[in-house]
C-alpha cells in the first residue's frame, strides 16, 4: 500500500496504542507461566509473532472480543516446536524467543523475513552456548536462521551491552525458570537501558524477582510467573505517542491542539519525547495523573538529542528537525543502524528526497533546518514502520504531495496510524 499526504492541519484527540515492548514481554511472561490474561495488549504483526512462538512451545494464546489475550502457558518448560519459528519482522520476538527455545530439551529453528535475517544475534548465541546449549547461525554470520538445542542451565555469563538490550531481557526472562538462575555480566556499557527497566518492571508484575547488580543484572532460578489476580494490563506506548505528539507540534491547527490519551507514566525511556518536543519550542502539557498530553504548534528550534537510551525516537526527531530552525543534532545513534533498517541512513536519504539537508556520521545525524526546503516527494518506507510514520508526518507540512511507498508496514506497531491521522484532520489517500 502507498499513502499520499497533502499539507494538512491537525487537531482533536488521539489514543495511544498499547506498548509493543510491554506486550511482547507480557505474552512471553504469560507463556512461561501456567495461565494469565493480558489486557490492553497490542495485537500487531510483531506481537502476533511472539504469540505464535508461545503456541509452538506448547502454550495457547486466544484473543477475546474485547482484545484481552487469554494465555495458557508452557509452565517454564517449552515443548520442542513442531515447526520452524517464524519471527517475521520482529527482532524482539527473535531474541526473546531464542532464549526461551534454549530451555527446550531438543532443537528449535528460528527465522524471519529478509530484514530480520540481517540483524545481529551473535552475542546472544555465544551467551547461550556458554550456558550449556548449542546455538548457532546456519550461515555462520551471527544472523538468522538460528538453530538452538537445549536444555539451558543457569550460571554466570558475560555479554556486550552496546549491541542490543534485548539480549539481557531474553536471558533474564529465561533464567527465572532455570534451576540456578542467571547472572548477566556486561562487557560494555549498556545501550537502551530503559528497555531493561521495562523488563524488570514486567517481571516484577508477574511475580519474578530480577535485579541490577554492580556489573550487570541477575535473576534467581526456580521462580514462577504468576501476575497478581492472574491478569496484567499493558500501558500505552510512548514510541507510538511520539507521532501524534510531533504531528501536533509541527502541524497543529491555529488555535487548536492535539490531545493524546493513554499517556500514563511508566519505565519507558521514550517518555523523553515529551521533553524533546517541549525543548524544541512546542506548547506541551502532560497531565501524568490523567494520562493526557496536550500539544499545540509553535515555531521550533533545533536542539541536541542523545538517543543512546531512546533509539526508536530518532526518525521522529529527524522529522521535527526538518521543520525546525537551525540544526538538530542527534547523537549516540550507532545502534540505531541495527533496527529493521539502518534508520540513520534511511532518514537522511528519504528526507533528502524531500529537500532536507543532513550530515550523517557513524554515530550521529544532524538535520540542517535552515538549509532545508521541505517539499513533497515520493519516498520509500524501507519496510520499516517507524520510517513510514515519520515520513508521513513530514508530508503534513511539505510543499506539495508526499507519497510514502510500502506504508502498510505500520501494522508492525501502530495498525491504526493512518486512521488516526485522518481523524485528526489530515488529508491522505491510500492506494494498493
Automatic annotation (TrEMBL):
Superkingdom field: Archaea
Gene Ontology CC terms, in alphabetical order: cytoplasm
Ranges of residues in domain Enolpyruvate transferase: 7-420
Region Disordered: start-end pairs: 1-20
CDD domains referenced in this protein's UniProt entry, alphabetically: EPSP_synthase
InterPro entries (UniProt xref): Enolpyruvate_Tfrase_dom, Enolpyruvate_Tfrase_sf, EPSP_synthase, EPSP_synthase_CS, RNA3'P_cycl/enolpyr_Trfase_a/b
Compartments (UniProt record): Cytoplasm
Function: Catalyzes the transfer of the enolpyruvyl moiety of phosphoenolpyruvate (PEP) to the 5-hydroxyl of shikimate-3-phosphate (S3P) to produce enolpyruvyl shikimate-3-phosphate and inorganic phosphate.
NCBIfam families xrefs: aroA
Family classification: Belongs to the EPSP synthase family.
The name this protein goes by in its record: 3-phosphoshikimate 1-carboxyvinyltransferase
